[in-house]
Write a structure and sequence with these properties.
mainly beta; 6 strands; SH3 type barrels; 44% strand
């Protein structure tokens, strides 16, 4: 099953392109890159060859799904990846 706007939060996010649209840390706002790892509370994003750790709960993210852009409040994503994927609405 591929990621779609309606199931993105239940999908594996490693490998997806992402942009930090808003952040409580001004240094993180505007970061763009590919998610290379994920923990319960953070994404590790490869930004032009440098890995940046971004707290999920502090940010709003914009994911690129082909031609479709999807914005997600990071608070929705706070969970271990394997638990988030299994989580029921």
């Amino acid at each position: 099953m591929s990621a779609k706007p309606e199931n993105l939060t239940k999908h594996e996010l490693i490998g997806h392109m992402v942009e930090v649209v808003e952040s409580s840390d001004p240094a993180k706002a505007g970061l763009k890159g590919r998610i290379v790892d994920e923990t319960r509370n953070t994404f590790i994003i490869d930004c032009k060859g440098k890995e940046k750790t971004v707290a999920k709960a502090e940010c709003t993210f914009r994911f690129s799904l082909g031609q479709t852009l999807v914005e997600v409040d990071g608070k929705v994503l706070v969970a271990r990846p394997e638990d988030r994927i299994k989580k029921k609405d």
